[in-house]
C-alpha cells in the first residue's frame, strides 16, 4: 500500500507548489516504472521459483530432500553431478542425450517433409475424395493417443520393429501429425494462387511449384512445426517407453527416471540433477529459436 | 509414489480387459505335455524385464554374468524401468502379444495376468528344471492361481513396525514394547508430547487407518481374510466403519502427523524425513528408509505390529516379488532354467543380497551376504513365526485400485473432509465397481 501512496503524495505536492511541473512529471514516471518493475519481478520470481528450486536442489545431497524443502542446500555438494555423469546401468549419460537428439531430429525432418507435401496436396490439388480424406485427417486429431496405443503396438510387433526407433520415426515420415498438416494447409490457403498460376503458365509442374514457390513462402509455418515437433519429441515419454526395450537405447525422459525406484531407494539428488541437464538443450533450443517461433505464430493470423 | 502407479494401473487395466480376448485366442496349448530339458547346446535369446533402479540393474548384470558362465548359449537381453512404467509397458505388451520371456512379477498383478492366460504354467517344470527342494511348500503356494503355478517367489516380506532409534533417543522415549493398538496409540502420544515439550516438530507416527494392510491385519486377527478364495469381500460395512472410527482419536488429538505436512514432503514419507518416529509397513522398506534418512542413520528399530487379538495368526509372508514366464515364450525350457537360476542359485543370492527382500530359497539365502539390516529383517521374520498364518488368497483383480482408494479415503478422513460413514459408502461403491468389472 505504501508504495502506491508515494506517487500520490508527490502529485499533491505538484499541485500545490508552484514549481515547474515538467521535472516532477518525469520523476513520477520513473517511480511508476520502478513500481511496475518490482511487481513484474515479484510475479516472475513466483513463476520461476520451481525452476530455481530445481537448480538449487541439484546441489542437495539425496538425504536432504524431505528434510529441507527450502531453496538453499544445507550441505551443498556436487556429488549428484558426479554420479549422473557416470551414467546409468553401464550406459554413459551422453548416450541418452544422443538417443534423444537422434529421435528428435529424425522426427523434425520427417514431419516437415511429409506434412508439407500432404498439406500442399490438400490445399492446391483437386483430387477425388479430397474432402473425405481431409475430414479423416482432422478426425485423427480428435483421437486420444491411448485409443491407438494397442493397435499400433500390435502392428509394430508383427513387423518385428519393436526395440528399434522405427515405431517412433516412421509415422512422422507418413504425415501422421495431423496438427502440422492442418497448420500448413491453412497457411498455404492464405497464399495467393496467382503466383502458382503464373508458374503453371510458365510450364512448371506440381513439384516445381511446391519447391520453388510454396516451400519458400511457408517458411514461418515450417519453423513453427519444427520447433513444436522437436520439443514434443524431446519430451515424449510414452512412445519410447512402449517401443524401446534396451536400456542403452532409452531417450532422456525414460533414463532420468531410472534413479527412482518406488519399491526401494530413490536417488532424488541424481534425479533432479539429470532433470536439469535434460532441460538445458531444450532451453537453449528455445532461446535460439524463440524469435522465429513468435514470427511463425504471429503470421498464422495474418491474411497472406 | 503410489498414486501415479495406481492411476495408470486403472487406465491400463481397461486396456488389458479389452484385449484379453485377443490374447486368449492366441494360446490354447499350455504346458500339459511332459517338460523337456533345455539342450545346453541350443543357442537361445531370452528377454528379461524387471523393475528397479540403476543399483538393481547392476545386480542383475552380475547375476546374468554368473548365469552365462554356466549356460553360455543363452543370451539374456535385460531391460529395466521404474515400477509404474514397468507395468504400463507390460499392459500394452500383454495386449499386443509381446511380453518378455522372463519377468520380475508383482503379487498384485499375478491373478489378472494368470486368469487372462498370459503366464506360463510352471507346474511341469517344478521339481525338474526348477528346483523345489530349497523352497518351502507355503512359499510355492503363494504363486498358485487356480490350479496353475504362474510365479515363483524370489523373496518374502512381512508387515512390521519400523521405529527411528535416533529420534527415540533424542526424545527419551523407550522402544515400543509391544501390546495392543491402544498401547501403540499411547506410545505414539508419548513421543508427540515429548517432542512438543522439547519444541521440535516430531510425531509418534502416521495415521495407520489410512493403510488397508492394517485393516487386513485386524480382520485376520478375527480369522478372516479381506477376500475369500473366490474373490468375494469378506468384511462388512460395520467392520470398516469401526476400523476408521478407531483412528479418529489419534487424528483429532494430533498424535499422528497431519495430512498437510505429508503432502509437503511427498513423494517422501514422514518416516523417510525423520518427522515421525514409527511407521507400520512392509519390512523390506528398511533399506529405502535408511537411504532416504541419509548419513547419521545406520540402524532402525523393527518390531512386531500391535496385537489385535492375543494368539491370532494375523501376520503372513508375502512375496516381495516373483518370477514369471510369458505364456508365449518360444523357449520355455531355457526360460525356466533362467528362472531357476534367479530364484535358487547361491550366485544370484550373492549378487542381490537383500535388494529384492530376504531370499525365499534356502540355497539362494546361503549365497547371500546379509548386511546388518538384512540380518535384522531375517531375525524379525523368525521372531514373528508364532503370529504367521497362511497367506491370503492371491489378490483379486483390481486390488491395486482398491488399495489406492483406501489410501485416498484415509487422506480425506485425515483432512476431515469425509465422515466415517461417507468414507465407508465411498469405499463400498468402489468395491462394487471393481468386483463387477
Walk me through this protein's architecture:
The complex is a heterodimer of chains A (304) and B (437). With 304 residues, chain A is mainly α. Chain A has 14 helices and no strands. Chain A has two domains: 2-57; 83-300, MetI-like (MetI-like fold, Orthogonal Bundle). Chain A is 71% helix and 0% strand. In chain A, α3 packs across α14 (268-300), α9 (193-201) runs antiparallel to α10 (206-217) and α11 (219-235) packs antiparallel against α14. Chain B folds into two domains: 2-156 and 319-369, D-Maltodextrin-Binding Protein, domain 2; 159-316 and 395-435, Periplasmic binding protein-like II (D-Maltodextrin-Binding Protein, domain 2). Chain B has 18 helices and eleven strands. Chain B has helices spanning 2-26, 54-70, 83-96, 107-115, 137-142, 165-171, 181-198, 212-221, 237-246, 248-252, 259-265, 286-293, 332-344, 346-352, 362-367, 372-383, 399-415, 420-435, and strands at 44-51, 74-81, 102-105, 144-145, 148-149, 152-157, 159-163, 278-282, 301-303, 318-325, 358-359. The radius of gyration of chain B is 22 Å and the shape is globular. By secondary structure, chain B is α+β, with helices and mostly antiparallel strands. Classes of the chains: A mainly alpha (304), B alpha+beta (437). Chains A and B meet through α6 and α12 of A and α1, β1, α2, β2 and α3 of B.
What are the key terms here?
heterodimer; A: mainly alpha; disordered N terminus; B: 437 residues; alpha+beta; D-Maltodextrin-Binding Protein, domain 2; 2 domains; 3-stranded antiparallel sheet; 18 helices; 11 strands; globular; signal (chain B); Extracellular solute-binding protein (chain B); SBP (chain B); Bact_solute-bd_prot1 (chain B); Carbohydrate ABC transporter permease (chain A)
Amino acid at each position: 500500500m505504501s508504495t502506491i501512496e508515494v506517487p500520490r503524495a508527490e502529485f499533491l505536492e505538484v499541485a500545490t507548489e508552484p514549481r515547474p511541473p515538467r521535472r516532477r512529471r518525469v520523476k513520477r514516471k520513473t517511480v511508476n516504472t520502478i513500481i511496475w518493475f518490482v511487481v513484474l519481478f515479484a510475479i516472475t520470481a513466483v513463476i520461476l521459483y520451481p525452476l530455481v528450486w530445481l537448480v538449487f536442489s541439484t546441489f542437495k545431497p539425496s538425504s536432504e530432500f524431505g528434510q529441507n524443502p527450502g531453496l538453499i542446500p544445507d550441505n551443498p555438494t556436487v556429488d549428484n553431478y558426479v554420479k549422473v555423469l557416470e551414467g546409468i546401468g553401464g550406459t554413459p549419460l551422453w548416450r541418452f542425450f544422443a538417443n534423444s537428439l537422434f529421435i528428435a531430429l529424425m522426427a523434425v525432418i520427417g514431419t516437415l517433409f511429409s506434412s508439407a507435401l500432404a498439406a500442399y496436396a490438400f490445399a492446391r490439388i483437386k483430387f477425388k475424395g479430397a474432402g473425405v480424406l481431409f475430414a479423416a485427417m482432422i478426425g485423427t486429431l480428435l483421437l486420444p493417443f491411448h485409443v491407438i496405443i494397442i493397435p499400433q503396438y500390435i502392428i509394430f510387433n508383427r513387423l518385428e520393429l519393436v526395440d528399434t526407433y522405427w515405431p517412433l520415426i516412421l509415422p512422422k515420415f507418413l504425415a501422421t501429425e495431423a496438427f502440422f498438416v492442418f497448420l500448413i494447409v491453412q497457411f498455404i490457403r492464405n497464399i495467393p494462387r496467382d503466383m502458382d498460376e503464373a508458374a503453371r503458365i510458365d510450364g512448371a509442374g506440381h513439384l516445381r511449384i511446391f519447391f520453388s514457390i510454396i516451400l519458400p513462402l511457408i517458411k514461418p509455418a515450417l519453423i513453427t512445426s519444427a520447433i513444436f515437433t522437436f520439443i514434443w519429441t524431446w519430451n515424449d515419454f510414452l512412445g519410447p517407453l512402449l517401443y524401446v526395450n534396451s536400456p542403452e537405447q532409452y531417450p532422456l525422459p525414460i533414463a532420468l527416471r531410472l534413479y527412482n525406484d518406488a519399491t526401494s531407494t530413490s536417488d532424488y539428488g541424481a534425479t533432479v540433477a539429470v532433470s536439469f541437464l535434460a532441460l538445458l538443450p531444450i532451453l537453449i533450443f528455445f532461446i535460439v529459436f524463440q524469435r522465429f517461433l513468435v514470427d511463425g505464430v504471429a503470421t498464422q493470423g495474418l491474411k497472406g | 509414489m503410489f498414486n501415479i502407479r495406481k492411476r495408470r494401473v486403472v487406465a491400463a487395466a481397461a486396456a488389458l480387459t479389452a484385449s484379453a480376448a485377443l490374447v486368449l485366442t492366441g494360446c490354447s496349448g499350455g504346458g500339459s505335455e511332459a517338460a523337456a530339458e533345455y539342450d545346453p547346446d541350443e543357442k537361445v535369446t531370452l528377454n528379461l524385464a524387471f523393475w528397479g533402479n540403476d543399483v538393481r540393474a547392476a545386480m542383475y548384470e552380475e547375476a546374468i554374468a554368473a548365469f552365462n558362465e554356466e549356460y553360455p548359449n543363452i543370451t539374456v537381453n535385460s531391460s529395466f524401468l521404474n515400477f509404474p512404467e514397468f507395468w504400463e509397458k507390460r499392459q500394452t505388451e500383454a495386449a499386443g502379444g509381446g511380453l518378455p520371456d522372463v519377468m520380475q512379477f508383482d503379487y498384485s498383478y499375478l491373478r489378472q495376468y494368470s486368469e487372462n492366460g498370459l503366464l506360463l504354467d510352471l507346474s511341469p517344470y517344478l521339481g525338474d528344471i526348477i528346483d523345489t527342494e530349497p523352497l518351502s511348500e507355503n512359499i510355492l503356494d503363494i504363486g498358485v492361481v487356480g490350479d496353475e503355478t504362474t510365479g515363483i517367489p524370489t523373496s518374502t516380506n512381512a508387515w512390521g513396525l519400523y521405529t527411528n532409534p535416533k529420534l527415540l533417543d533424542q526424545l527419551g522415549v523407550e522402544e515400543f514394547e509391544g501390546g495392543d493398538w491402544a498401547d501403540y496409540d499411547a506410545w505414539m502420544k508419548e513421543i508427540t508430547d515429548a517432542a512438543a515439550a522439547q519444541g521440535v516438530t516430531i510425531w509418534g507416527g502416521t495415521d495407520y487407518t489410512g493403510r488397508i494392510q492394517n485393516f487386513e491385519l485386524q480382520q485376520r486377527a478375527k480369522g478372516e481374510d479381506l477376500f475369500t478364495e473366490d474373490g468375494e469381500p469378506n468384511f462388512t460395512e460395520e467392520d470398516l466403519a469401526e476400523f476408521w472410527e478407531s483412528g479418529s482419536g489419534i487424528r483429532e488429538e494430533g498424535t499422528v502427523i497431519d495430512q498437510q505436512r505429508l503432502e509437503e514432503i511427498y513423494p517422501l514419507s514422514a518416516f523417510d524425513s525423520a518427522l515421525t518416529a514409527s511407521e507400520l509397513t512392509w519390512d523390506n522398506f528398511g533399506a529405502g528408509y535408511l537411504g532416504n534418512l541419509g548419513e547419521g542413520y545406520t540402524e532402525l528399530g523393527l518390531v512386531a505390529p500391535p496385537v489385535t487379538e492375543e494368539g491370532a495368526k494375523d501376520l503372513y509372508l508375502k512375496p516381495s516379488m516373483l518370477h514369471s514366464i510369458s505364456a508365449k515364450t518360444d523357449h520355455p525350457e531355457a526360460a525356466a532354467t533362467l528362472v531357476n537360476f534367479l530364484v535358487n542359485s547361491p550366485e544370484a543370492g550373492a549378487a542381490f543380497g537383500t535388494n529384492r527382500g530376504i531370499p525365499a530359497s534356502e540355497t539362494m539365502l546361503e549365497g547371500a551376504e546379509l548386511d546388518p539390516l538384512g540380518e535384522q529383517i531375517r531375525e524379525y521374520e523368525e521372531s514373528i513365526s508364532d503370529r504367521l498364518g497362511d497367506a491370503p488368497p492371491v489378490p483379486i483383480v483390481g486390488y491395486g485400485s482398491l488399495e489406492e482408494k483406501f489410501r485416498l479415503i484415509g487422506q480425506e478422513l485425515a483432512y476431515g473432509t469425509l465422515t466415517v460413514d461417507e468414507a465407508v459408502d465411498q469405499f463400498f461403491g468402489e468395491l462394487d465397481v471393481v468386483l463387477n468389472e
